[in-house]
């Protein structure tokens, strides 16, 4: 997904697109209902991207084509800036491709409009299925699976901890820090220009040279904390807005108070997704929250340059959890060949087909066997791009398997409008001009309107 204000899902989906994109075919050749010259059912898979990027994926599709004698997959590349416009035009003309990638936040909107097929039968009872948290569902039916898994984690600078004599954050969810323990440790790692900590007399909050933490407050990631505090932006089934629940408001205020009251975090306005770059990579913070993709997108190169980092589970307020996301693939309901489209996607979802992204740490596998079969987990994690095996397995693999909840767009429509509004109304909360209570209460009707998709 890509929206004007770059929320994290934009960056993540862009990463997914760059890795999977397809070659430039004639947009009129949708393949929907057609057969190739040799009698195979012709399936078109749409992606956004350049012809050069797409050539790689077409080679992969050709490998699938050669593996059986019933289906032929052609890949349709559409430039990103025109992708959704082109799909909408094709939908109106009833010329949609058979299958393709979508943004996380667009899936339920298209499902509500009847544009997506039910893919609940894609995996049989004896198959290793994707983690349940990676299924997009509409009215009880699965309409998409994420192509990759991404969870939120806590990263930290081991050298800063060693220098402060502080205990590393726990890699095991059983030993996860409470929010209060997290803040207390962050104070030990926060220093002003005179070497004083926030809880020491004479601490100069105007001249902090090292912060203890940075908690990403981008709207979709911020919801983790209301959920951890027993609430959330929405009810558990997504049927109503609950961001005005006192537990939600309390959690958001606690995140704001890391800067305003505790003085352990720098000001963060919730508008960018670069918390790891701004925290432990920049050397300004001892801890930072962010997605698993950071292992491959920025932390590997930072480690080569000398960063001694570790990965841990997140602190919690009431419930120990993390959020997951990942760009989804769908089967469009206009296809005349849903079974063949699902067969292609099931093959395409195999981790071997995206191994370069998995072994670098940008993606995590989606199939359960990679989380439960120790041999396969070792194959995934035992490489130079990752933290030590036991640390990563506990803090990431086991955590994602047992404590992960789906981000809201897996079960709530109109999350783009809602999250954009959350970003806007919380701006003055981060700077302390208003409280979370004041900002949310004042804008609750507008938030409900955005949730219903009727915001102007």
From TrEMBL:
<keyword id="KW-0472">Membrane</keyword>
<feature type="signal peptide">
    <location>
        <begin position="1"/>
        <end position="24"/>
    </location>
</feature>
<dbReference type="InterPro" id="IPR006059">
    <property type="entry name" value="SBP"/>
</dbReference>
<dbReference type="Pfam" id="PF13416">
    <property type="entry name" value="SBP_bac_8"/>
</dbReference>
<keyword id="KW-0564">Palmitate</keyword>
<protein>
    <submittedName>
        <fullName>Extracellular solute-binding protein family 1</fullName>
    </submittedName>
</protein>
<keyword id="KW-0732">Signal</keyword>
<keyword id="KW-1003">Cell membrane</keyword>
<keyword id="KW-0449">Lipoprotein</keyword>
<dbReference type="InterPro" id="IPR050490">
    <property type="entry name" value="Bact_solute-bd_prot1"/>
</dbReference>
């Amino acid at each position: 997904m890509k929206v004007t204000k770059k929320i994290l899902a934009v960056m993540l989906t862009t990463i997914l697109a760059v890795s999977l994109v397809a070659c430039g075919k004639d947009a009129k050749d949708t393949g929907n209902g057609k057969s190739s010259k040799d009698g195979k059912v012709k399936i078109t898979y749409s992606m956004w991207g350049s012809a050069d990027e797409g050539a790689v994926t077409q080679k992969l599709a050709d490998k699938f084509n050669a593996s059986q004698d019933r289906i032929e997959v052609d890949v349709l590349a559409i430039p990103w800036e025109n992708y959704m416009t082109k799909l909408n035009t094709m939908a109106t003309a009833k010329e949609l491709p058979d299958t393709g990638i979508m943004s996380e936040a667009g899936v339920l909107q298209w499902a509500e409009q009847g544009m997506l097929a039910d893919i609940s039968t894609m995996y049989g009872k004896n198959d290793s299925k994707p983690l349940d948290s990676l299924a997009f569902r509409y009215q009880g039916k699965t309409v998409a699976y994420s192509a990759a898994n991404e969870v939120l984690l806590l990263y930290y600078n081991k050298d800063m901890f060693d220098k402060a004599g502080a205990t590393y954050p726990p890699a095991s969810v059983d030993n996860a820090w409470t929010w209060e323990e997290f803040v207390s440790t962050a104070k030990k790692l926060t220093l002003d220009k005179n070497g004083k900590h926030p809880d020491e007399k004479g601490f100069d909050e105007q001249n902090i040279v090292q912060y203890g933490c940075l908690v990403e407050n981008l709207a979709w990631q911020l919801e983790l904390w209301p959920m951890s505090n027993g609430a959330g932006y929405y009810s558990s089934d997504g049927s109503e807005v609950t961001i005005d629940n006192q537990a939600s408001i309390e959690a958001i205020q606690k995140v704001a108070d890391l800067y305003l009251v505790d003085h352990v975090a720098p000001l963060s306005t919730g508008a960018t997704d670069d918390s790891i770059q701004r925290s432990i990579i920049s050397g300004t913070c001892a801890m930072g929250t962010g997605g698993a993709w950071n292992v491959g997108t920025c932390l590997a190169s930072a480690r080569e340059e000398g960063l001694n980092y570790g990965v841990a589970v997140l602190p919690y307020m009431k419930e120990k959890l993390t959020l997951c996301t990942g760009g989804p693939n769908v089967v469009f309901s206009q296809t005349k060949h849903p079974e063949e489209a699902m067969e292609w996607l099931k093959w395409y979802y195999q981790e071997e087909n995206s191994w370069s992204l998995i072994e670098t740490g940008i993606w995590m596998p989606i199939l359960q066997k990679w989380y439960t079969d120790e041999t396969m987990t070792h194959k995934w994690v035992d490489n130079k791009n990752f933290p030590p095996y036991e640390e990563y397995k506990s803090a990431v693999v086991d955590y994602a398997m047992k404590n992960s909840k789906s981000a809201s767009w897996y079960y709530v429509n109109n999350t783009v409008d809602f999250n954009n509004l959350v970003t806007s109304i919380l701006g003055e909360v981060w700077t302390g001009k208003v409280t979370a209570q004041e900002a949310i209460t004042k804008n609750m009707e507008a938030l409900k309107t955005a949730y219903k998709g009727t915001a102007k």
